[in-house]
Every structure is written in C-alpha cells, then in structure tokens.
Amino acid sequence: MYDLLIPGVLEQFTPAATTERGFLEQVQQADIRLVEHFRTHGPVSPEIYTDPLIRAAYLLRHLGHYTLQMDDLLTAFDGRPEVVAMLYRPRLRLAALCGGPCPEAIALSCLW
Predict the structure, then answer these.
(1) Which of 6, 26, 27, 62 is buried most, with the most CB atoms less than 10 Å from its CB?
(2) Residue 61: how many CB atoms within 10 A of its CB?
C-alpha cells in the first residue's frame, strides 16, 4: 500500500520549486499541527484539511495506519455470520469503524 501511497502524495502535493526533503520537513511540521488539532478538536473538524500540507500529513502518517488497522479488524471478523449479515445489507448505515470512511473503503475493497 505504501509503495503506491508515498509516491502519489509526493507527486500530488510537492510544490514545483521544493525539494522532496524540504517538502517532507514541511509535512512533518504539518503533522505536529494535525495531531495537536486531533487532541483539541477531534479528527472530524474539516477546516484544518484546507491546508494541502495537512492533507499530505494525514495521507502519509495516518491513512495507511488506519487502513491496515481496519483491514486487520475486517480480516478477524471475516466469516462471522453476524458481520457478513451486517456488511451485505442493502443499505449499510455506518459513520466510521476506525479512521473514517476512506480507510474503511480501501480495506473493504482489499478484503472482498
């Protein structure tokens, strides 16, 4: 997963005049701000994600971890009748099991 995620984030978010190292240093600082924001506002406060460096920090540090964590959870539940029944309902109403809908969608697509 990371072999696709990292180059994609670098390509999408690195400004033209910035070195990869300089960009990653900026992302590291943005991640510090993001973690502090999580502590004080929770992860669902959308205004912080308007900053591209914050989005890059989330993708590089948090998305992969949440996706792998969700994949582990779904794999552990795989085959359990009550979970299968829940996932195959005509409409699945669920806010988030883990790090939000994107990691869950990625994990589900890998599992099935």
Answers:
(1) 27
(2) 16
Identity at 36, one-letter amino acid code? E
Q: Is the pTM value of this prediction over 0.85?
A: no
How is residue 46 annotated by DSSP? G
Cα(44)–Cα(6) distance, rounded to whole angstroms? 23
Q: Strand ranges (DSSP E) for 8-78?
A: none
Residue written as token pair 């669902």: 44
Please give the radius of gyration of the chain, using alpha carbons only, rounded to the nearest integer: 16
Is the pLDDT reported for residue 20 higher than 60?
A: yes
Decide if pLDDT at 1 tops 70. yes
**Count of positions (residues) in the chain:** 112
